[in-house]
Amino acid sequence: MNKFDVIVVGAGTAGCMAARTAAKAGLSVCLIDYKRADSIGDKVCGDAIGKHHFDNLGLAYPKGDELERTIMGIEVYSPDMETVFKLSGEGLYGFIVDRRLFGQRLLKEAMDAGAMLLDSTQVIEPIIEDGFVRGVVARDRKTNGKKKILGSVTIDASGCSAVIRRRLPPEMGIETTIDKRDEVICYREIRILKNELEEPEYCKIYLNVNIAPGGYYWIFPKRGSKVNVGLGVAALANFPNPKDQLYKFVLSGEIFKNSIFIHGGGGIVPTRRPLDSFVSNGVVVIGDAACNVNPIHGGGIGPSMMAGKISGEVIPDVLETGEPTVEKLWLINIRYMKTYGAKQAGLDVFRLFLQSLSNEDINYGMKYKIIREDDVLKAGIEGDVRLNITDATRRLFMGLGRVSFLRKLYKMAKKSRALKKIYEEYPLSPKNMPEWKLKIKSIWEN
Question: Which residues have C-beta within 8 Å of that of residue 96, sequence separation ≥ 6?
Fold first, then answer.
């Protein structure tokens, strides 16, 4: 039986960043992952990360084989393909990475900082004593032997499986289940095209509710003529199989004729506002397990690393003062919520609005620039949804019989701003959570 200051369950982007940061601060860290060490980082993903995340985290930019492509921005296509929003500039400049090599780099940095890796190890459940998480029960996948690993703080960074979060008792105050309607089911392939994409410095996103209901499909350029192509659908009633949709509507296109398949796979993305709280006595939840994901485009690498870094910075100070109680760990919530969490909350309202639209609504909205390209960019970066509705636009939409669409837009933008503000005023103590949750509930129930 081993004892550590910190146990990190899951060596993904969130877990490696938490382990690296905590180990650098001098804590003993055990990093546990289900995969073999050389497979860590090999994950179905869009592979795109904004440059600003590297700057904020103090991480070196990807280079060499790890860097597949430098990206200048995103092109968003309307369902009828007649309108393209070309978004570029600060916040969208970034990188397409080789996901496995990027994951291996983060793992190496965590281990170089002093974290100990237990690979090929399955965490089965948390050890809970006296209202505290005191460690985990794990199974060695090579020997099938079980063992207890004790830790002062256990971090659940196990992705959508959320092996610790799902097994916490309700009195610990962390949501254990996520509504399926807040998940997007994705399938993506890596393919080599006959020819390099036009404008390979732009990621391409396509909106079409018939092809990708509640989500979108994408073509992201990688090195040379290699691309990451995929499709995500919201897990709403009777949702179609994303792989079937990708093959039927996307891979049947001319540019994929005679393309070479390299790799394919699916996954689940929790596209919603973050959990109300990430912390309880002796436990922290981060990454996909905590819904640290942009609700609009599903990007989670940046925010998950941010949550990992915040956790790794707060925990050493907490352990210096004694028991890692929910009150002492609460600063993790505050730091995340007042920045990225508030943005996520505002965008979650926008997501639900977008999921209610028809292709015709989206075509009109983009054609008449109800939300301008600059404002789409600002919404993605800051979480603020700004509308561009002039008197001329109102008259036009009245003539088209689409005034109800504008009313829905106004209502959405107002709710989005209200929810973002509530998250910016996140409670400074768990004592004030019931009152804060009532404010959130009043907006969601409206």
Answer: 47, 48, 67, 68, 69, 70, 71, 203, 220, 221, 222, 228
Q: Model confidence over 151-169: pLDDT tens digits?
A: 999 999 999 999 999 999 9
Contacts (Cβ under 8 Å, ≥6 apart) of 387 = 370, 371, 375, 409, 410, 413
Neighbouring-strand partners of residue 186: 232, 267
Phi and psi at 161, nearest 5°, equal: -65, -30
Give φ, ψ of 142 to 5 degrees. -85, -40
User: Cα 44 to the chain's mean position, in Å?
Assistant: 13
**Homologous superfamily, domain 2-62+99-177+272-344:** FAD/NAD(P)-binding domain (3.50.50.60)
Q: How many CB atoms lie within 10 A of CB 353?
A: 18
Distance, in Å, from the CA atom of 202 to the CA atom of 75, rounded to the nearest integer, reads: 6
Quote the tokens at residue 274.
């973050």
Q: Does pTM top 0.90 for this prediction?
A: yes
pLDDT per residue over 239-248, tens digit each?
999 999 999 9
* Long-range pairs for 429-436: beta carbons < 8 A, 24 or more residues apart: 429/327, 429/330, 430/173, 430/277, 430/326, 430/327, 430/330, 433/173, 433/276, 433/277
Classify domain 180-269 by CATH number: 3.30.9.10
> Does the pLDDT at position 1 exceed 60?
no
